[in-house]
Design a protein that fits this description.
The structure is a homodimer. Chain A is about 45% helix and about 15% strand. Chain A has a twelve-stranded mixed β-sheet with strand order 3-4-2-1-5-12-11-6-7-10-8-9, sandwiched between helices. With about 350 residues, chain A is of the alpha/beta class. Chain A folds into two domains: about 160 residues, Rossmann fold (3-Layer(aba) Sandwich); about 160 residues, 3-Layer(aba) Sandwich (Isopropylmalate Dehydrogenase). At the A-B interface, α8 and α9 of A face α8 and α9 of B.
């Protein structure tokens, strides 16, 4: 199984994306021929040569030309910028590294893509170029975060800004599958992010979704409030894309701010620089989301891994590792089965949109 | 000017609410006769007697009976529970400490109320019993938080779950007045919490509001994303009640979680218990929202201060101090003036709702 890497996606591309591919190989997670480097041919060839690595050119017409031990390169001469409008990028950049990465999945040459580029563009390409999983109305982005009691998954963090109730229902099912398969949680506790604990709280969307969830075979725990998100109350937290996006980014900003405060107060309390450095880097490792390698866009055929724009080589290598694991675990197939089992709930309640 | 205290509101009532009143007096912020204790008469009398304090009974019929140096008590024999439905509490508990606190404002015997009780019930009572400020369509809850570059204000954190664009516009104006008057910021930078930095991003509500803000006399900075909230980019952050509520509670939960992580890693790095205790309590003081004493419900005649349900005496005393300051600063009058100055924007865009 091959993983396509959008080498030009992200703030530090292609240096960090290519270094991430190399790191994934050095860690023994994948062979070079399993990572399809999508981007500017010569630049990638030169970079690999400098590192003493082999490369082969890959084309959709002659895919059998890749030799063992060498990185296949799929030439792509356009770049989707971080601030490109997603739909325009899709229409006006048919030769972008992102687009050709998705094409390699669509044509069956790769099972997964990893990109640290423009998230909106990744979602637009996925929705347009990949098939939806049977029964899933809208894909959602699932991100895994380390909390007080281990990892938990938040879905959706920004693919779907104005979702319908059935979309959130599917996010609960998909998140539950991910938690079960990828994190080994037996009966993942699913919670709906809301502004009060009691049933009947929240906006119209939240109120409607509570009823739908109660009919599923999920281990639905009802509402979860903001202060509980990090405290290990649920394994899967379902929310609309707008709120999930704020949640994810706020967590990042607040962690940064708090660690500044910690640093200042430790210095005042006379803790030595060496001790502080040791403690802070240990703390940072535990709150750094790139440890989990990125977010997964669930609900389409193929594994789509979205990394933070600021990703460094370690984050990219972790994302490649995640993409490989998600492919092997066949999460997409398991989601389809679970959606089918609960299909009456989704179809009875609302006309297809 | 008298401040009504809902002595039975909150998880630790009335012990901590009464202690908070006492603390505010001990700190010299107010005289006892300026704090109207609303709650069970005998219980409060006994409590005050044990502390060696004087009390007088207060009634709407004979308000002149309060003697200097003694706490006036307004008898209230019902309690609004934390999980009471707001509208039902309003209808079925006419003798609650919360209701009679609001009645004392409505009848002109107090200028402010402080409550650590059921937030939804506080909002419902305020909206029903107090007049709206002229031109303001819906009140919003403003909370002040300490960030990387000093205090900033988030409005709304839960009064208005499904707001219209004009409501958010008014939140921006009210938050800006608060920032200017209470925190001395000259031209408060106002940002709209959104999921992208560029104009035109976000859900329908966010898109419509961006246009409205550009027509105001505010120092509008456009969109602000989650990761920037704590980093000092804006003095006022405008958002819908659902998102603001999640933001506020998430910040609380994440801070708790991160400080646990910090504690564990400092112990591993060999930092002594004493040093750690010193540093952690200094850190906690800087991230503890009760330092600012509570949130203000802006948009009604009279000062309404809402405290966290878990408030201790220090938080209550700070809230009483905040209520006094807000009353003296005449924030309500200044909001009315500012709303009037921008009234064409609000009235042209949307019919009164």
């Amino acid at each position: 199984m091959r993983i396509a890497l959008d080498t030009m996606g992200g703030d530090n591309a292609p240096e960090e994306t290519l270094s991430g591919a190399l790191l994934a190989v050095e860690k023994g997670w994948l062979k070079p021929e399993e990572i399809l480097l999508v981007g500017p041919l010569e630049r990638i060839q030169n970079w690999l040569r400098e590192k003493g690595m082999e490369s082969s050119t890959f084309s959709f017409e002659a895919p059998e030309m890749v030799s063992a031990g060498s990185f296949p390169i799929l030439e792509a001469n356009q770049v989707v910028a971080m601030d490109d409008a997603p739909i325009q990028a899709l229409r006006q950049k048919p030769q972008s590294s992102l687009r050709l990465g998705f094409e390699s999945i669509r044509r069956g040459f790769a099972g997964a893509i990893v990109s640290a580029g423009n998230t909106g563009a990744v979602v637009a390409h996925a929705v347009t170029l990949l098939k939806s999983l049977k029964g899933v109305r809208r894909p959602g982005i699932a991100v895994t975060i380390e909390g007080e009691a281990g990892p938990f998954t938040v879905i959706d963090v920004g693919a779907n800004i104005q979702p319908k109730p059935v979309h959130l229902l599917h996010y609960g099912i998909m998140g539950s599958c991910l938690s079960q398969e990828a994190h080994g949680v037996d009966q993942p506790r699913v919670g709906l992010l809301n502004i009060g604990g009691e049933a009947g709280k929240g906006n119209t969307l939240a109120k409607e979704v509570q009823g739908l969830f109660q009919e599923t075979d999920l281990n639905f725990k009802g509402n979860i409030e903001g202060q509980e998100v990090f405290l290990g109350v649920c394994d899967v937290i379902v929310t609309e894309g707008f709120v999930g996006n704020v949640l994810l980014k706020l967590s990042e900003g607040l962690s940064t701010h708090l660690l500044h405060v910690v640093q200042e107060e430790l210095a005042k309390a006379g803790v030595s620089k060496e001790t502080m450095k040791e403690a802070l880097s240990a703390i940072w490792r535990r709150v750094d989301y790139s440890e989990y390698g990125g977010a997964l866009l669930l609900g389409v055929e193929g594994v789509v891994t979205i990394c933070h724009g600021r990703s460094d080589r370690r984050a990219i290598s972790n994302a490649i590792g995640l993409a490989k694991r998600a492919t092997e675990l066949e999460i997409a197939r398991k989601i389809s089965e679970r959606i089918a089992k609960n299909s009456e709930i989704s179809s009875e309640k609302e006309p297809k949109s």
